[in-house]
Design a protein that fits this description.
InterPro entries: QdtA_cupin_dom, RmlC-like_jellyroll, RmlC_Cupin_sf. The chain has one domain: Jelly Rolls (Sandwich). Helix content is 6%, strand content 41%. The protein is built from one helix and twelve strands; from the N terminus they run ββββββββββββα. Strands 1-9-6-11-4 form a five-stranded antiparallel beta sheet, with no helix packed on it. A five-stranded antiparallel beta sheet has the order 8-7-10-5-12. It has a two-stranded antiparallel ribbon with strand order 2-3. The longest helix is centred in the C-terminal third of the chain and has 8 residues. The radius of gyration is 15 Å and the shape is globular. Bound molecules: thymidine-5'-diphosphate. The site of thymidine-5'-diphosphate (TYD) has 7 residues, from β4 and β5.
């Protein structure tokens, strides 16, 4: 549910030579094991990504570079997160519709995912997603 979705403070090793952040699975920094990593980049101004929900998939979304907004919607309530720091991750629980918008130029959106890619795990129709959530 929306209450489970939260900003995760990742370790940051500050160094005059440049900072370092790491993310470990096994329940240490995120509550799932990482089975897949993907990233969005070269996103043209005004483009919108996401616009779908997942049945089982859990994710951690990180703005590796630049910024964007993530709008989460559990079918009842919505919450908007502005992502612009590479040491903060947004944990997205299952059954969450997400829209990703307002990409800055040069933004890189990295996503850690709990499962391999599976189109059968997607809700791509918002009305169907809401109907499922509301038990219709
Ligand atoms: P999609 O998940 O709709 O993109 P986003 O949510 O980032 O806007 O995926 C876009 C296309 O890429 C779709 O045809 C499926 C494919 N795809 C893969 O093959 N593997 C993956 O891990 C992901 C995330 C997408």
């Amino acid at each position: 549910s929306l209450d489970q979705c939260r900003i995760v403070d990742l370790p940051k090793i500050s160094d005059p030579r440049g900072n370092l952040t790491f993310i470990e699975g096994g329940g240490r920094h995120i509550p799932f094991d990482i089975n897949r990593v993907y990233y969005l980049y070269d996103v043209p101004g005004g483009a919108e990504r996401g616009a779908h929900g997942h049945k089982e998939l859990q994710q951690l979304i990180v703005a590796l570079s630049g910024s964007f907004d993530v709008l989460l919607n559990d079918g009842r309530n919505k919450k908007k997160f502005h992502m612009n720091l590479p040491y903060l991750g947004l944990y997205v629980s299952p059954m969450m519709w997400r829209d990703i918008t307002n990409f800055s130029s040069g933004a890189v959106c990295m996503v850690l995912a709990s499962e391999l890619y599976d189109e059968n795990d997607y809700y791509r129709d918002y009305e169907k997603f809401v109907a499922q959530v509301r038990g219709k």
